[in-house]
Design goal:
The protein is α+β, with helices and mostly antiparallel strands. The protein is about 45% helix and about 15% strand. The strands form two sheets. Strands 2-1-10-9-7 form a five-stranded antiparallel β-sheet, with no helix packed on it. The chain has a five-stranded mixed β-sheet with strand order 4-3-5-6-8, with no helix packed on it.
Length: about 400
């Protein structure tokens, strides 16, 4: 009867598959075995698969050092009946055993993502994407630069982004090799370039919208700009999980959504449960410099801009006057309290003590410097005329 032996990776991905049509199959590290394992924890003749007279398949330990176990079990097996699809740990190697008539799942239709990765794995596609991305970065820097355009500024502004991009690509590739047993490094680089390009395009489009936005719609565009960051984070995480791990679509999406939700919760812990991010006072104006050719909306008229500025200054003057009135009322209350207590200046004025600043300690007083003694009064008319001491008459 046919028996199929699969060597599995850490995530149950198939590393190697062999089929045998024999009464018994030897498993071990020795070169005379039917299935040769390279694990150093496997004996030269570690285990044997054998069919009995009734056609049942058994696995036997041949006196190995580390034995045979089932996953998540500690007990060692000396002889155990094998059912099609059982997984055993031989040393530290995971082995799945199937019979020849074991059913297989239905064929999976080729997905667009697989076709896209195959296309992105071409070196010419990677070169074209990198050139397009660099052109977009240089063009964006040229459009937003005030004054003279310098290549040094382009390098300085994008150096860390390039280093982070290469580091991320290398990490994703090694995770793919570790957990998926393979991966196309060029395809990973191309996909990350596409993601960075999409993120940069979203930034530019939102900046363009904010540049042309009115005062009323500005908070909404800034909220959308913040949501753009979380969208890009979701795409990054989803792509990394797709490239590096064997996970289903809903698991990848769920993990990425949970990570984005945690990031959102850490960034926004408002005291007020209302939508604070839609309040005009919580969103400072951010200057965006773009060339006039990108001014798509009709700018505000000069008269309307002057009127809006006057309203702002009038509101500031009103707030200043209100604070002055409150201070005058507070001073008047302090004066009345002193008069009521006989002119005692240390009387606390009425009001809320929780907002009153603590009294200032004047500290030790400085000692007064001793004054010079006054000269003794002399006789009138006996002043010094420069002729020596006066004599006796």
């Amino acid at each position: 009867m046919d028996v199929v032996i699969e060597q599995l990776g850490t995530t149950n991905n198939v590393l190697e598959r062999q089929k045998f049509d024999a009464h018994q199959v030897w498993i071990g590290r020795g070169y005379d075995n039917d299935v040769i394992l390279t694990d150093e924890h496997v004996d030269a003749r570690h285990a044997r698969l054998v069919f009995d007279d009734e056609g049942r398949l058994w696995i036997e330990d041949r006196g190995s050092v580390n034995g045979i176990r089932r996953p998540r079990h500690r007990s060692h097996l000396k002889r155990e009946q094998v059912r099609s699809g059982d997984v055993f740990l031989i040393g530290r190697s995971r082995v799945r055993i199937l019979l020849g008539d074991h059913p297989v799942p239905a064929a999976v239709k080729i997905r667009f993502s697989e076709v896209l990765l195959l296309w992105l794995g071409k070196p010419l596609v990677l070169v074209a994407l990198v050139l397009a991305y660099l052109g977009a970065k240089v063009g964006g820097t040229a459009l937003t630069t005030i004054g003279e355009f310098r290549w040094a500024s382009v390098v300085k502004d994008n150096l860390w982004e390039v280093i982070g991009f290469v580091t991320l690509a290398v990490v994703v590739y090694f995770l793919s090799v570790l957990f998926r047993r393979g991966g196309n490094f060029v395809a990973h680089l191309s996909l990350l370039v596409v993601l960075f390009f999409v993120a940069g395009s979203l930034d530019f489009l939102i900046d363009l919208a904010v540049f042309n936005a009115s005062d009323d719609s500005y908070p909404w565009w800034m909220a959308l700009s913040e949501a753009r960051g979380y969208l890009v984070l979701f795409l990054y995480l989803w792509s990394i999980l797709y490239l590096a791990f064997h996970l289903s679509l809903w698991r990848r999406s769920a993990i990425a959504l949970v990570a984005v939700a945690v990031s959102l919760a850490l960034e926004h812990l408002p005291d007020d449960p209302t939508f604070a991010f839609l309040d005009n006072e919580t969103i400072p104006l951010q200057p965006i410099f773009l060339p006039p050719v990108l001014q798509l909306a009709e700018p505000k008229a000069a008269e309307a801009a002057d009127a809006a500025q006057r309203e702002v200054f009038e509101a500031a003057d009103a707030a200043r006057q209100r604070l002055l009135d409150e201070r005058e009322a507070d001073e008047a209350a302090q004066e009345k309290a002193r008069e009521a207590n006989g002119g005692d200046a240390d009387v606390e004025p009425p009001g809320d003590d929780s907002t009153r600043p603590p009294p200032i300690d004047p500290g030790p007083s400085e000692p007064e410097e001793p004054s010079e003694p006054d000269e003794p009064p002399g006789d009138e008319g006996s002043g010094d005329d420069g002729a020596g001491p006066p004599g006796l008459e």
